[in-house]
Amino acid sequence: MSMLPSGSRCVVRGIVAGRGLIKRLVELGLEPGSTVKVVRNERGPLLIEIKGSRLALSRGIASKVLVEVS
Fold it and tell me: For 1-70, where are the alpha helices, taking DSSP H only?
């Protein structure tokens, strides 16, 4: 996800991380099948929109989220 430009829409296909991080991301709505919009991807954390909420993700965490561009 960390490589998508601002304004992109994508579908989460998987998360490559430990159980704790996966659980936390799922609690925030970031789970396989979810549609995500990348609001801002410039310097610093990514700002995404998912299920009507905005979340800031560090680049490290965003790079663990596998997506398919929609």
Answer: 19-27, 59-62
CATH class of the domain whose range is 9-69: mainly beta
- Ordered by start, the domain boundaries in the chain are 9-69
Tell me the C-alpha distance between 68 and 64, whole Å: 13
CA angle, 58 then 56 then 50, to 5°: 125
Q: What is the pTM of this model?
A: 0.89
57 phi, psi to nearest 5 deg: -120, 135
Torsion angle defined by CA atoms of residues 22, 28, 30 and 35, in that order, rounded to the nearest 10 degrees? 170
Mean pLDDT by 10 residues, the chain (70 residues): 95 97 96 97 96 95 95
